[in-house]
Amino acid sequence: MRFIKITLITVLLFFSISFVYADTNLYLFGKGNFVMDSGSEDDYRPGENDFPMASSFNNFGFGLGVVFESKKVFYGLEAHYTLSGNTTLTDPSDNDTVEVDTYKHISGLIALGFNLVYKPNLRLFINGGGGVSLVLDAEMKTYTSQLGYETQIEAPNKYPLTVFGGVGAVINFSQSLGLWINGRYQYLAIDVPESAVVVLVGLVFGF
Predict the structure, then answer these.
(1) pLDDT digit string (tens) for 129-164?
(2) CA distances (Å), 41 to each of 35, 94, 180, 193, in order?
(3) What is the set of domains in the chain, with CATH numbers?
(4) Is the pLDDT of residue 189 over 80?
(5) Which residues contact 126 (CB under 8 A, 6 or more apart)?
(6) What pLDDT, on a 0 to 100 scale, did the predictor assign at position 3?
(7) DSSP-derived secondary structure for 105-162
């Protein structure tokens, strides 16, 4: 408990100092998630995990971030809302398949980055971070498989951890407005972990 209190106080002091010694920018963005195949035959457990293999799929979302920036380093907080997608699950025992909707979720992330190029009209950077997601409507759902079987799909872990790393650029139109592009590799630690390439595009408002 003492360690948690010290950590929270340190984080609060860190961000308080950030307001004084760094520029503050607001990011508004949309994003596309390109989720890779997940699961394998080794995850198959009859009656418990009948459809362990999930196909790749795409979904989309939006969010905002508050970032404190200097010439070399930037750091901040991001909030994401991710819409549902559609994926196909496979039963390796008989190759039966079922199409299911993925779950919407919201995420809170801490981001840290380093500027590789810092010019008045252009910034190139690398960044990374992580946080916690909240799966919305995390309830068991019932579907009918391709072979006609009624299939119940359990919801994933409601509070999965999320981590990411990526590269990007900011193109400044003026001192107070710019275009932000960020490509990321993301790992979502649900029951069957998901990896995705995420593309974020949005506007930066300087203060």
Answers:
(1) 999 999 998 888 889 989 988 888 888 888 999 999
(2) 19, 11, 40, 15
(3) 24-206 (2.40.160.20)
(4) yes
(5) 113, 114, 116, 165, 166, 167, 168
(6) 47
(7) EEEEEEEEEEEEEE-SSEEEEEEEEEEEEEETT---EEEE-TTS-EEEE----SS-EE
Burial state string for 70-101 with b = 16 or more CB within 10 A and e = fewer than 16: eeeebbbbbebebebbebebbbbeeebbbebe
Pairing of strands 122-135, 105-118: antiparallel
Nearest to 88 by CA among 57, 44, 46, 48: 57
For residues 178 and 194, the answer to whether their CB atoms sit within 8 Å is no
In the numeric block, the tokens 């910034």 are attached to 123
pLDDT greater at residue 16 or residue 175:
175
What sign has the CA pseudo-torsion 204, 201, 82, 33? negative
